[in-house]
Structures are given as C-alpha cells and as structure tokens.
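Q: Sequence in, structure out?
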Amino acid sequence: MNRPSRKSNRLADYDYSQNGKYFITICTQNKTCLFWDDAFVGANCVRPHAIPLSPMGRIVARQIDRWNQTYPDVWIEQYVIMPNHLHLIICIDHGILDNDRTQTDAKAATVSRMVKQFKGAVTKHAGQAIWQRSFHDHIIRTQADNERIATYIQNNPYTWMNDCFYAE
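A: Exactly. Output:
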C-alpha cells in the first residue's frame, strides 16, 4: 500500500538539541478529552492549577514533573494540561557546550526525542495509546515571543470554549 509521504513538522537543518526555548503542543488522538475531570471540560475555569485532572491527566502531570529527572539540562518553564492537549515551554541549557559534541551525539536530548519518550511513558502508564501522531513546535527566539506564549499558556484554560482544539 502506497501512502503519501508525510511532510516534517520540524524546521529543516535546525539542531533541536541546542540551547533554547521551545513551545510544544501535544494533542490526543481525535481530540478526545481525557485530561480534565469530566465536570470541568465544558465549564469556565478558575485557574490552571485549580482544575481537577482526571486519572489520565494525573499520569500526564507526573510525567511532566519527571522531565527534569530524565534530562538534567532541560526543564519545563511553564505548562498547562488542557482537556485534549497540552502546551509546554521546554528550556534546554547545556551551559558551555563541548566543541566535540555533534548532532549525532547519543546523549544530546533533542526536542523530538524528549517528546517521543514522554508520550511513550504516558502511554505505558495509561495502558493505552492516546496521542495524535507528532506534535507542534515553535522555537522561541525573543523575550517578547516568550512572554506572548507564556501568557497564552496561562490564559488557555480561561478560553477553553473558544480554543481551536475545543471538543466536548
């Protein structure tokens, strides 16, 4: 069976393991709402950290919290778990890099590798596949861009009913 080739979502020739900040969006398969307690999916929300998570949402939160343990030079600056997707700002800071390090270095934590391992860990703990293929990324290049995205993440639960990923 010949399938059409899928265009890469990543920026060509960009080293996604280099120091920087990355805005990541990961969605559930078919926009299925899995992460919030059912009573809050269609409700107005108070604050992101006050939203009761479903058991599946708690699995996602635990795996996000483990990110720093898995990747010591990486941390999550900000995130929000929405009913059917999540947004994260991932920060990579290797300090002063060794000149011998190359893109093929097995220890280089690329954004794609981290997201793949995160999705795999959630799938393993959940006991079922829940993720849409791939993910969306945006390389944060300026402070203004970082502030705009951080505000978006903070406000996303307030605007759930108008979200492009909204599904009941």
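Helices lie at 55-65, 67-70, 111-126, 143-155.
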